[in-house]
Each structure stands twice: as structure tokens, then as C-alpha cells.
Amino acid sequence: MEAANENKTKGKRVEIFCSGCSRSTNHLVIVSVDIEGSEELPDDAWIAWADHYQVVQCQGCNAFSFRHLHWFSEEEDPTSGSDGLSERLYPERDGAHLRSREFMSVPPRLDRIYRESIHCFNSECFTLCAAGLRGLVEGICADQKVTDGPVERPAKGGGTRIVREKNLEGKIAGLHEKGILTKSAAETLHEHRYLGNEAVHELTRPSRAELKLAAEIIEHILEELYEIPEKAVELKAEKARRKLRK
Question: Where are the alpha helices (DSSP H) in 144-182?
Fold first, then answer.
């Protein structure tokens, strides 16, 4: 026997993780569909279950999300402390998840690769995430029309020489050569290149910590290349408008 009720848990407050606040916060159930059921078994035994589908709103940042709370009597186990409850949140998130940045001026195809990479990270597809971040570096070079750059190579007889390379290493050096990136930022992108090469060619699985740091650095570079220049233009235009109003 099963029964469904609308808004049985409406108005209830629950504490869950909020990606916007980056911590657990109180959420208010705005709308719910609550299903409860049970079934009798032989020898006076029984099983029961409940599903609560809820639209919830964070009481800190006001963001909306979806929560599914499931309970099954057969999953209760007093010896292990299990209460039979399981919870799923949509979008999926917890303290280890990354929240996608909202970029306004990043080219759409780069923004798409960035978001797909973050999705892979949150889905624990770490090898694909690393490959995506490497692809994002390639995309940045292509968008900035950088096709090669100076790379240091061993010279015959000892020492080093500078050659122009068209591989990703050369392109990253070209970003610095054209003044698009600082030396330290270019060196950081080289780390992404190595990370992606290992993941794609050697099928290694990068750690969560490595990828989290890599994604944060990529976000900083996207901010530096695309968001800050656009904000500077807007600021200059606003100053000009203010002078005209005087």
C-alpha cells in the first residue's frame, strides 16, 4: 500500500550543504511530494518505505535546489547505527565539490569546456577532468591566436638553445612571449600541460587535491585574460559617463 501527499513536509527546515555558501546551512522546504508505503509479509513481518521529493531554499544565500530523502525499513541497522535514510541533492554537491564560476566574458566554447571539466571533477571522473583542463589550455592558446613559442632545448656539445615549438609547451611559452600571460602564469599552465599529458597518454588518475588546485588556477587565468579587461572597459566607460553628467 502506498500513498502520496503534497506538501506534507512543506515549511520544514533541514540542514544541508549549500554550494553557494560553501558550508552547511538551514534550508526551507518550499514544495514537496511525500510518498509513504508499507507491505505486510508472512509471519507478521512487514517492510515500509518513504520518499520525500523537496524543492528547498537556502536561508543564507536564497538559492533553490532539489532534495530527495529516501527511507527504507530494511536498511535500518541498530548495530551499525544506520537509520535507513539516504539523501541526494541536485545539483550534486558536498564539501569536496567545486562550484562553477559564472564568467560573463569568457568565450562560450571555453566556458563550455570549463564547466564540463568541473562536472567531471564533481562526478569523480578525475582522468577526464584532467584531459578537459588540458583541452582548456589548448583552447586558450587558440583563442589568443598563439601557434608557437620559444622553448629551451639542450644544445649539441652542451648548454642550451632556444627553438620555436608548435606543441602545447611552445604555445604556452608564446602566451608569455606576447605579453598575454606573466612568466609565473605561463609556468603554471605548463603544470596543467604535464597533468593532462599524464592523464591522457599514461591513463593515470590525478588526485582530487591536484585537480582542485589546477581548476582554481585555470579560473584565475580566465579571470585575468577575459573578465578583468572587460571590467576595465566598463569602468572607463562609467568614468566617461560621470564626467559628462557633471
Answer: 168-177
Query: Which residue is it, cell 583542463?
Result: 133
Enter the C-alpha cell of residue 25.
546551512
What's the predicted TM-score (pTM) here?
0.66
Q: Could you tell me if 218 and 192 are in contact, meaning their C-beta atoms sit under 8 angstroms apart? A: yes
Q: How far apart are the C-alpha atoms of 110 and 106, rounded to whole Å?
A: 7
CB 19 within 8 A of CB 99: yes
Strands 82-90 and 45-58 come out as unpaired
pLDDT in tens, 107-123: 999 999 999 999 898 88
Which residue, chain included where needed, has cell 509513504?
36
* pLDDT value of position 155: 87
For residue 246, give the 3-state DSSP assignment.
Answer: coil
Give the pairing of strands 45-58 and 13-18: unpaired
Q: For the segment 77-114, what is each residue's pLDDT rounded down to a tens digit?
A: 777 667 888 888 988 776 677 888 889 999 999 999 99
**Nearest CA to 218 among 153, 132, 148?**
132
Closest C-alpha among 195, 190, 186, 187 to residue 131: 195
Instruction: Pick one of 1.25.40, 1.20.120, 2.60.40, 1.20.1250 as the CATH number of 108-242.
Output: 1.20.120
Cell numbers describing residue 41: 509479509
For 196-226, the pLDDT digits (tens) are 777 777 777 888 888 888 888 889 889 989 9
CA–CA separation, 48 and 227 (whole Å): 53
Domain coordinates in residue numbering, the chain: 2-90, 108-242
State the Cα–Cα distance between residues 31 and 64, nearest whole angstrom.
11
